[in-house]
């Protein structure tokens, strides 16, 4: 059960929302937690206990000697009165019910700032999954971890893109479902004349979301290419760092005539690979620019 949360929601609240997928499903089915017990009920119970205790103590004072009665008042009556009046706001409600109501109220407060993937239709779920795979490709890449990409912009822009895509798909799914329910079965020409332009509007909106997803995928593809170049660059640098060992070995074995040109080419290959890495990173940065709102047509 996955929940996409608006990145503007405070982190602790966002974590609570993501962990409350099952509660969200129950809410979608109409579940509402029981209201808290009235404080007056608990208070009346406390007062009743206190009154009973005082009555018992008064009887005891009349039946026993004065000293024993005072001791009873001090060691029994006072604690009972404290329990009755200091804790009269407590109820018999269990912690699970209290927690469920708190989660429910939190989810209601942030209604509209999260999307439950179960609320999306099949086509929308596939689109969201594509966007999330592209984002994961970028976030989990070595070039991102090494700071070769714009990490700050990634940390801000990518969650914002995921949320915007999820939000738009949720609206699209809901409207598309209602549209299909309305025009299911035989429709008159008059209804078709109204429904067809609206269906095209839905298709046009979906195409706009697809364009966002494809922009993310292009960025991820460029990052993947940069990732390959980066790994190859690391491997070649590791080999180049051991060149002196190879040179020493070929000198000892008398294979200089064959090996020296090959080792020289290794250095040239490393330089070319470094240039390829820079080009790949430049392409990734360029692809990222198309994700910014001002860059989309």
What secondary-structure arrangement, pairings included, does this model have?
Elements: E1 3-5, H1 11-18, H2 21-28, H3 39-63, H4 66-86, H5 95-109, E2 114-116, H6 122-139, H7 142-145, H8 151-183, H9 189-240, H10 243-253, H11 256-289
Antiparallel strand pairs: 1-2
Coiled coil: 236-283
Keywords: Coiled coil, Membrane, Transmembrane, Transmembrane helix
Transmembrane segments: 41-61, 68-86
Question: How many angstroms does the end-to-end distance come to?
Answer: 34 Å
Report the average pLDDT across residues. 78
| Side-by-side strand order of the widest sheet | 1-2
State the order of secondary-structure elements, H for helix, E for strand.
Answer: EHHHHHEHHHHHH
What percent of the residues sit in helical stretches (DSSP H or I)?
over 70%
**Shape label:** flat
Strand-residue proportion: under 5%
Give an account of the 3D structure:
The chain crosses the membrane at residues 41-61, 68-86. It contains eleven helices and two strands, in the order E-H-H-H-H-H-E-H-H-H-H-H-H. The protein folds into two domains: 39-86; 121-295, no CATH class. Strands 1-2 form a two-stranded antiparallel ribbon. The chain is mainly alpha-helical and 297 residues long.
